[in-house]
Design brief:
mainly beta; Immunoglobulin-like
């Protein structure tokens, strides 16, 4: 049996919007890597959207934390905890006709004002109730200036 709960996916993006009536989630500007002209980088806001499944039956609250760490050193650049997420199956249509442990929950977490000190690989670590659920890489690179076209010299 798989460990409870299971992180199915971690998406990184510039923004996340949840529609009020439909509860649909839109992620804006998804990325796996970022490139900057100078280091340390200017502070920026980003989102980590955690998709959870296999939540144990009877769970009503789940506290999530997202940490961004420098790979190799474990230095924590940022740690953000969400308010405990309410897991409520009572409002699911036909809740008795499917295995609620297979339901996917998309939880966007805002990571405010993070600055990267240097190019490299960073880890985005997800904790659930203070236990590590998963981690994924985030590559931070130096932006390369494209070569300038040669200019014509006039005699």
């Amino acid at each position: 049996m798989e460990k409870d709960p299971v992180v199915a996916f971690v998406a990184l993006s510039d923004g996340a919007i949840r529609e009020h009536l439909t509860l649909k989630l839109s992620l804006i500007g998804c990325f796996h890597a970022l490139h900057f002209k100078k280091f340390p980088t200017p502070p920026r806001t980003m989102f980590a959207t955690i998709t959870l499944t296999n939540i144990p039956l009877g769970t009503t609250k789940l506290a999530l934390t997202v940490r961004v760490e420098e790979e190799g050193t474990g230095h924590v650049l940022c740690s953000v905890s969400s308010n405990p997420v309410t897991v409520d199956m009572k409002h699911s249509p036909d809740a008795g006709s499917f295995d609620v442990r297979k339901v996917l929950f998309d939880i966007p977490i805002r990571i405010p004002s993070i600055s990267f000190p240097k190019p490299g690989t960073y880890s985005v670590v997800v904790l659930g109730n203070n236990e590590q659920l998963t981690a994924r890489n985030l590559i931070i690179g130096a932006a390369v200036q494209p070569p300038q076209p040669p200019t014509e010299q006039q005699s």
